[in-house]
Amino acid sequence: MKFLSTRGASGSLSFSEAIRQGLAPDGGLYVPERLAVSLGTWDESILGISQKIASSFMEGDPLHASAGQICQDALSFPIPLKFLNQTTAVLELFHGPTAAFKDVGARFLASALSASSDGKKRDLILVATSGDTGGAVASAFFQKPHVAVVILWPHGKISPRQQQQLCCWGENVLSIAVDGSFDDCQALAKRAFLEWTPGPHQRLTSANSINIGRILPQTFYYAWASLKYKQERGVAPGFIIPTGNLGNAMAALWAKKMGFPVGQIVFACNSNATLVNYMSSGVWQPLPTTSTLANAMDVGNPSNAERLRHLYPDFNELKRDVQAFSVDDEAIRAEIVRGKAKWSETWCPHTACAVQVLDRVHAGDWILVSTAHPAKFEQVVEPLVGHRLELPKSLQEIMGKKQSFSRIESGKDSLSQLRKAIDSL
Ligand SMILES: *Cc1c(COP(=O)(O)O)cnc(C)c1O
């Protein structure tokens, strides 16, 4: 199986090449050349299904033999599908080490990069993070052989709990606080990729959310949940998905195109309405980013939209398969407040967007996608529900570890400071 650039001007690559490349040389994003998976007889477990999907994407790749182990590493925690009533279920993606759905993709990528290393070069993963992504990536790569992670984050601009999740690792994880904004961190990472020549035994690699190695494994839970729902209720469910950069929802669309019993896909966005506007006008018009309570979805220019437009060159077909809605902060608050009484659930602010959208879609069978544990966003959720939330065990363990990080200033010689810090790894 080969992977092609959405812009069509770069050569095709195998899976293990595409995950090291990150962005295609023509500026496009890698997509699989085919989305056909033979449905045949399916093992009912999520692991069995994921191994079949992963094997088909790794066909002809040296990684093919390791597909089973990589899937096991990625799915090392439960992913329950909970039925809430006759026509609604919730897919809980927050039982991983950092309590959000990004654990699945980050762990798959970490395991795949580590397994496909020839042992001669170490992959240096450079990530700029505004909070959540870095924690999932750090946890996923910690102690993996032949890889090291460097995390750049804006000093003083993330919550204490987020900081702890970036700074508690050590060994092959280097946490660097930049005196500047998230944009400064991102600009620094970009400069490093463009200007920096790593040593003979190093290779600079990106693990950001456009990497195909983070998005493909997200198809596993959509494939499994759709089959499971259909088996229980006899109907192909739609999915309502909290959406920001469109990585998670893109995987749902790929699962649908692979032939799994998936109905409509609904993007539940916050006040950042770029995707919602696109779905109503067909015109792509990125907007400046607005801060909201569902801050992991604060994206004004979702980069995976390029994959969406590539998958659906025909806008009318896209309109048949996809809907999008925007949920403002007031509606997020209201949904969290009524969560206990209405559903016996406490929602995180992102999941609350999906729950709110359930009132706006046509009646039918829907799976709500729950992207994070509410205790991860305690500053928003606790005042609304009126009590303390207990941290899941995996996060409690992280909170108990010792913190350490380096600091660099943003500005002209930030790249040489970064280099010095990395050389200490
Ligand atoms: C990243 C994130 C999202 C948004 O996912 P995308 O793939 O960027 O659309 C939603 N909820 C949570 C909790 C997240 O961390």
Please give a quick description of this structure.
With 425 residues, this protein is α/β, with parallel strands linked by helices. Helix content is 41%, strand content 16%. It contains 19 helices and 13 strands.
Sum up the structure in keywords.
425 residues; alpha/beta; six-stranded mixed beta sheet; 19 helices; 41% helix; binds pyridoxal-5'-phosphate
- Specify the biggest β-sheet: 6 strands, mixed
Overall average residue pLDDT = 93
- Taking Cα atoms only, what radius of gyration do you get, to the nearest Å? 20 Å
What gross morphology would you assign? Answer: globular
Bound molecules: pyridoxal-5'-phosphate
Strand order of the largest sheet: 3-4-12-9-10-11
Query: What is the number of helical segments per DSSP (H or I, 4+ residues)?
Result: 19
Helix content: 40-55%
Give the tally of β-strands: 13
Structural class: alpha/beta
Can you tell me the residue ranges where pLDDT is under 50 for at least 5 consecutive residues? Answer: none
Q: Tell me the span between the first and last alpha carbons.
A: 35 Å
What percent strand?
A: 15-25%
